[in-house]
Amino acid sequence: MQMSSTSVTSRVATDTSLKYVKVRLRDEQLKKLRMLMKDSLEHQLTSLVKSIVSGVVDGLLTALESDDAGHKSTITGLES
Predict the structure, then answer these.
(1) Most exposed residue of 27, 30, 46, 55, measured as fewest CB within 10 angstroms of its CB?
(2) Considering the entire predicted model, what is its pTM?
């Protein structure tokens, strides 16, 4: 099975008086660009959610450990 590679060629028109470049993309290229952007956005959102969940879980564990330590010191104080 042979894999064919497609080269991405675009016509680029530049206007030196402006601070941007105009690029014309074929429909196929535009679809690929949209897929790449969608994949990138999904990856960024996944990373953000993982980070938030990790922070919340760490915070809860720290709070539970602190609360548990507080109960132990109270019980120890009562026994003394």
Answers:
(1) 27
(2) 0.48
| Side-chain-side CA neighbours of residue 17 (13 Å) | 0
**Residue 4, SS3?**
coil
Q: Is residue 7 part of a domain?
A: no
Residue 75: give the domain boundaries: 50-80
23, 10 Cβ separation under 8 angstroms? yes
Q: Does residue 79 register a pLDDT over 60?
A: no
Average pLDDT over residues 35-55: 95
**Residue 62 covered by a domain:** yes
The tokens for 69 are: 């330590």
Amino acid sitting at position 6: T
Nearby residues of 22 by Cβ (< 8 Å), 6 or more positions away: 12, 13, 14, 15
